[in-house]
Amino acid sequence: MANETPGLDQRDVAFDAKFFRYGFLAMMVFFIAVPFVNQAAGRDLIYLVFLMKVLCFGLFACAFNLLLGYGGLLSFGHAMFLGMAGYFSAHLAKVGLQFDQVTLFKVSIPLSVHLPPFSTELAILVSTAATGVLGLLVGLLAIRRQGIYFAMITLALAQMIFFYCLQAPFTGGEDGIQSVPRGKLLGMIDLTNNTAMYYFVLAVFTFGFLLIYRTVHSPFGQVLKAIKENEPRAISLGYQTERYKLLAFVLSATLAGLAGATKAIVFQLASLTDVHWSMSGEVVLMTLLGGMGTIFGPVAGSFVIMAMENYLSNLGAWVTITQGIVFVICVLAFRRGIVGELEALLRRRLTFRQFLFEVFAFRHHKRARDKKRG
Amino acid sequence: MDQIFGIPINAFMGQLLIGLINGSFYALLSLGLAVIFGLLNIINFTHGAQYMMGAFGAYFLLNKLGLNYWWALFVVPILVGATGVVIERFMLSKLYKLDHLYGLLLTFGLALIIEGIFRNEFGSAGLPYSMPSQLEGGHNLGFMFLPNYRGWVIGASLVVCIGTWLLIEKTKLGAYLRAATENPKMVEAFGVNVPRMITLTYGFGVALAALAGVFAAPIYQVSPQMGSSLIIVVFAVVVIGGMGSILGAVITGFGLGIIEGLTKVFYPEASNTVIFVIMAIVLMIRPQGLFGQR
Prior knowledge:
The complex is a heterodimer of chains A (374) and B (294). With 374 residues, chain A is mostly helical. Chain A folds into two domains: 45 residues; 253 residues, no CATH class. Chain A is 69% helix and 6% strand. Chain A is built from 15 helices and four strands. In chain A, the strands form two sheets. A two-stranded antiparallel sheet of chain A has the order 1-2. A two-stranded antiparallel sheet of chain A has the order 3-4. Chain A is globular and about 70 Å long. Chain B has 294 residues and is mainly alpha-helical. Chain B has a two-stranded antiparallel ribbon with strand order 1-2. Chain B has a two-stranded antiparallel ribbon with strand order 3-4. In chain B, helix 1 runs parallel beside helix 5. At the A-B interface, helix 5, helix 10 and helix 12 of A face helix 4, helix 9 and helix 11 of B.
């Protein structure tokens, strides 16, 4: 692998920066413009609720991708952060903190806390922080093993959280926490208005997205990449790789928590679906389909998967089957994902005609293979 | 004396028995996972779906073809194993040069497809599978009542586990297998057809899962979701045991089944999560697993 990886020459860096700049611009223009376009058209061309879902899951997938695409750690339990954050924020926004005692393994400690329902932004902030702590605990255990074991451990711990949510009194069991108030942002902006809510979600998403971009391109992100490529070498260079991995895990969990906390407010619901293992699988799928290790990939993946679920939602188990098929195709034939393929095409600086030809004839696969063989 | 630690002995023994039954499924499934992992370096996420296919296979044979339980014990593992061979040949074999995580992702996708297809056909409700007449009833052991079928499952899975262990540790075929785990290139140089061995190993592991499914059919409801929740627990079992040894997988499987059963007696709220808690503790003390090597 090592000698196939292209050197980080100046042109690559320039390309990456340009790709990000134009891509980010296009993405932002699209997301900002939709409400205006809807208004101009007089009807909903794209539902804002759908886009809010895409944004929440997009942030979730970006956070996941930080771990998998840049750190090489496949967490198969990321739903626990999305789901728990959702429960936290839904509970805080609806009831606040109200308890008289803390019960741990049949031992009750009297501790009286009575806080009224939190404001929306505070509920999101506090639950994001709490999810970060959960991420720290899980991370401390999980980074003790690598590769497949890491995936199995995170999956098992997420299942433990799932059973906890099923039984714990504050999560509402099978019903979940329903009719969570959306509240007012900073006491001023009424979030029951879908457009206001949409721009708030967009702001949260953009914050998380840029934070991830910044992290990936920081010295920390570079070390993370080095660990992914060759951990023993990173160790021999004196990096304490465990610490880097743990920090990446906590950051990823926290941002997944941010996505989950926001999602619970948007949809006014926190339920078991979000902590279930199939949600963990779904975020893997979004990232894989969009392109792991690419900055825009998870967003694209979230868009496609959400659209797919929307169209297939009446067909029951077909959603699962289609997801499975997309998984298999991605793994066998489409490992770079949508954005990865696009990036590879653009990187070759084709003319527009060549570009169309390549896209429609799928020639680049063969050409790249021939080139590699010399 | 009709109480143990303040628990009626009948309830205690009953849960112990359930624990042993669950344990035999954990053991059979983690054994299959360990066999596959040994040679292919892949964690077979489809294992749960293949276990479910085994149970459905038994159901089909009985209700469509009129073949009884004893036939199912032989026919189903072979049929499901054959599907495994196809999967290995046409999909998994394309991934060996890549990161092992791709194998996990592929088998996860396959599990989704299989589960989805069965759910589409049969809905989520469970289908009943009647117990073979020879194993109905039970024995009163004095301190508890042991239904014959449950005794049979525990015994039969023990025999299968020990048989597999003997096959791998004591026969020439097993020696090839272990050698190929260590160094496939070298074994191939000696004229052993390693790719075929890999294919058959995968098929064998899948067959073990299907056999567990047949065992499970009369006890649990035959339903499309029966595999997916079980497989996650089995993953935890595998992490606790470590994948290094076959015997380790078996012992851990039975042991954890018993612990889970006892938790149901003493602290029922935690019975779902106790295995995961044990996993967390083992990871803190001995990250490579109880029987694993670094």
